[in-house]
Each structure stands twice: as C-alpha cells, then as structure tokens.
Amino acid sequence: MLNNGAKTPVCITCALTTPSGLASAGLNFRNKPLFHKGSVSHTHKFRTRGFVPRCSSSSFSSSRPVSQPRFIQHKTEAFWFYRFLSIVYDHVINPGHWTEDMRDEALEPADLYDRNMRVVDVGGGTGFTTLGIVKHVDAKNVTILDQSPHQLAKAKQKEALKECRIIEGDAEDLPFPTDYADRYVCWKSIEYWPDPQRGIKEAYRVLRIGGKACIIGPVYPTFWLSRFFADMWMLFPKEEEYIEWFQKAGFKDIKLKRIGPKWYRGVRRHGLIMGCSVTGVKPFSGDSPLKLGPKVEDVKKPVNPFVFLLRFLVGAIAATYYVLVPIYMWIKDQIVPKGMPI
C-alpha cells in the first residue's frame, strides 16, 4: 500500500484490471479515501508481492464516451463559464482546489531544472501555475496559452509574468511547430477538452525528443453524489484513463502523482479539480504515431441559444457543488483536525 508521499512505483495497467490488483496497488476505489499524494509509475518490469504482472495496452478499461452529460465540457460553454469565473477565480476556486503547496508538488515531476528551458503552459488561465513554473524557468522562455481572453487578462496583470508570451489558442490544435518545446505543462484544462486523447497527442507533437509533458487534472470520485455532480459538470478522468491516453499518444516513462490539500479528506472519494499530476517522456522526434479522425467538437457550428443556456445553467449548478465541498472539508478539519479520533 502506498502511503502519503510514497514514491513506490506499481504497474497501474495491471493493478487496475482486477479487484485484487486494485488492493495490491493501493488503489481502493470503493472504500475509504486514499491518499493526498503519492506516485504511481507505469512500467513493464516491476516485481511486486512475488510476481511479475503482465502489462499491455489492451488491459485498459475503455474510456467513457464524451457524449455523457458534462454540461461544461465544450469549448463554447467553457469560454462563457470563465467569462464570469475569471473575476473571482484566484480568490474563490484556487484556495479550495489548487494551493501554492499543491502547485509546487504537482510541478515537481515536470523536472524544471534549467532556466533556459522552453516551456508551454497550455490552459494557463490566470497564470497561477505559471508563477510556479517561472520559479525555475526564465519567464521569457515560457508561453501561456488559453482559449479564454478573460483568464489571460488576469495573467497579464501579474508582474512576474510580464516577460511571458501570452496567446489565445486551442489545446487540441496548438499553434506551435513540431518538436518545439522542452516541457509541456497543462493544469485544469483537460476536463474541458471534448477529446482528451487529441489534446495529449498534441502535447506529444510539440515536445522535442526527450521532452516531458505534465498534465495536472481532476480525479474521478467514488462517492455516488460527488460522482453524479462530476458527470454533470465536466470530465473527471479515472487514473487509468490518464495512463491510457498518454500511452496511446506514444509517451514513455509515464507516471501519475497524487496530490491534494492537506485538509481535504477524500480526494478520491469526492474527487478534486486538481487531484493528480501525470507525466510522460517523448521518446522519438516528430508527430505522435497515433492517428485520429475529425475533431469531436466543431466550434464554428451554430449553437442553439436555448439549449446552450440550459446546459450552462445546469453545469454551473453542478460546479457549485465543487465549491461547497472544499468549504465543508475545511470547516470539518477546523472542528476535528485530521488524525484526531472522530
């Protein structure tokens, strides 16, 4: 069993195929909440509990279809959602889901060891995570990309990011040449991608050989009510889905690190907008070997305003649940601190 902060790798491909595998890997999806942080590696040669598991891409469970409700998992809806949320994002959302400690913990696997690295921060929003990146990399070498001009306007106001290149763009169709960047960082963006596999394929393409992608995103909740609102709101991937998307895109040395606020109990039980950091290394130059068809969402297609408004309002209601959950967790921790008998 992995403990908080443990670095013990397990073969997540095999561990997630059977109930016994779940238990041996410490990935108990049905019982108590698991861990706030820890590291899970995808490897084909790891001996655990006296046997060598057989790993293959076919052992992954199928990804859930994008046709599930997810009322804010479309670019147009996300655009307008952040049109209003950008006003209070840094002061309301981040304190409950994305703290500075979590940011630094999540960026550690990205291996930002050189100030001259070229980094693209995809879905960079208000630049909160970019502030963590520029601690290690010169701002002039960092590009912040987001589809929301309202979020980017907040990033432009931050003094530490003045030298960053800030552009509007689509995570599923990046405006960068192939073999461009040393590091690809993406935080709180994958949940709005209609086609996550396409976005991760793009991450592979824009990286140089040996470059590393780091995607920070939600984890799928196990508690029925949290799962209900998660499926209504946006995409909360399962851990094995992250690994599958990275593997299919062509990445190697794939690792998943669990993160969460120290006071938030039940990162896996209730889900968390920032619950894990997944990294992978690009082994060969050029585009990803994965071939995909047309985009899932056509942003140029006319939108029925009544349907859009209904979806937007329902999605906003679901989002409210994930504003209230961390407040409840924080109050609970103040009354009965973690570790004390309940």
Description:
- The protein is α/β, with parallel strands linked by helices and 342 residues long.
- It has a domain of 214 residues: Vaccinia Virus protein VP39 (Rossmann fold).
- It is built from 13 helices and 8 strands.
- The protein has an 8-stranded mixed beta sheet with strand order 1-7-8-6-5-2-3-4, with helices on both faces.
- The protein is globular and about 50 Å long.
- It holds the Pfam family Methyltransf_11.
- Belongs to the class I-like SAM-binding methyltransferase superfamily. MPBQ/MBSQ MT family.
- Keywords: Membrane, Methyltransferase, S-adenosyl-L-methionine, Transferase, Transmembrane, Transmembrane helix.
- It comes from Senna tora.
Provide a brief overview of the structure.
The chain is an alpha/beta fold and 342 residues long. It has helices at residues 12-15, 19-25, 75-85, 89-92, 94-97, 100-107, 128-133, 149-156, 196-206, 224-233, 239-249, 267-270, 305-335; strands spanning 38-41, 119-122, 142-146, 165-168, 181-187, 207-219, 252-258, 272-281.
Structural class: alpha/beta
The chain-level mean pLDDT equals 76
Strand order of the largest sheet: 1-7-8-6-5-2-3-4
CATH class of one domain: Alpha Beta
The total count of strands amounts to 8
Question: What Rg do the Cα atoms give?
Answer: 19 Å
CATH H-level homologous superfamily name of one domain: Vaccinia Virus protein VP39
Residues in helices, as a percent range: 25-40%
| Order of secondary-structure elements | HHEHHHHEHEHEEHEHHEHEH
Main sheet, how many strands, which sense, barrel? Answer: 8 strands, mixed
Residues in β-strands, percent = 15-25%
Through-space gap between termini = 24 Å
Q: Count of DSSP helices?
A: 13
- At CATH level 2, the architecture of one domain is 3-Layer(aba) Sandwich
Overall shape: it is globular
Q: List unreliable stretches of 5+ residues.
A: 1-37, 42-63
Family: Belongs to the class I-like SAM-binding methyltransferase superfamily. MPBQ/MBSQ MT family.
GO molecular function, one term: 2-methyl-6-phytyl-1,4-benzoquinone methyltransferase activity
InterPro entries: Methyltransf_11, MPBQ/MSBQ_MT, SAM-dependent_MTases_sf, SAM_MPBQ_MSBQ_MT
Keywords: Membrane, Methyltransferase, S-adenosyl-L-methionine, Transferase, Transmembrane, Transmembrane helix
